[in-house]
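Box 3.1. Reading complex inputs
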Amino acid sequence: MAKLTHYGHATFALETDDGTRLVIDPFFGDNPVCDVSVDDVEADFVLLTHGHYDHVADAIPLAKRTGATIIASFEIASFMESQGLAASPQHIGGGVTYPFGYVKMTAALHGGKVDLPGAEAFTTVPGGFLINLNSGQRFYHAGDTALLTDMQLLKGKVDVAVLPIGDRFTMGPDDAVTAVEFIEPSVVIPCHYNTWPPIEQDPEAFKAAVGDRAQVEIMTSGGTFEF
Ligand code: NI
Ligand code: MN
């Protein structure tokens, strides 16, 4: 079993059945829907979908304290290496085999700024992650993105999909339902909503709209889901 923990917004921890701890888009201290301190989180790998502050805010302190390797686009990985951190650069469409499984960066349509002090020269193409764990589960975190026809390429390749539904900065609930139709995951977990008023959404309405296309798991901040 893999254990997924949600920390609100787009922040998730995924613990594999062999105990490897992945943290995706660490946003703890300034995250209004997270009451966990980054100092209390452990990580072996930190995965960053893109450079916006609400996805990378706590990446450096987390990687510094834990010694975790950062997995991110070439540009973000280069910046992290310039900060003295271990990083594994990847880019859209490319995958890498790690001790816990295979991680492929997927396309996302979104903004490219790397929003950390000293990173002004680093911009990147945002992405998502398709993670094929050694134990067989296939997990997809879409990152911040619009609905993409490219998501049809993921059809049949995802067991658990994390999709943004907040609208305004990412796809909203209606487009996320289409993404579910494209990808056909067994389970879909909505994220990137109700963090602030501009991205308020009703996850129960999203669940109803998905209907029998997939099992919708509405995760609260601090909640866990095993698969
Ligand atoms: Ni963003
Ligand atoms: Mn975001």
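In summary: The domain at 3-212 is CATH 3.60.15.10 (Metallo-beta-lactamase; Chain A).
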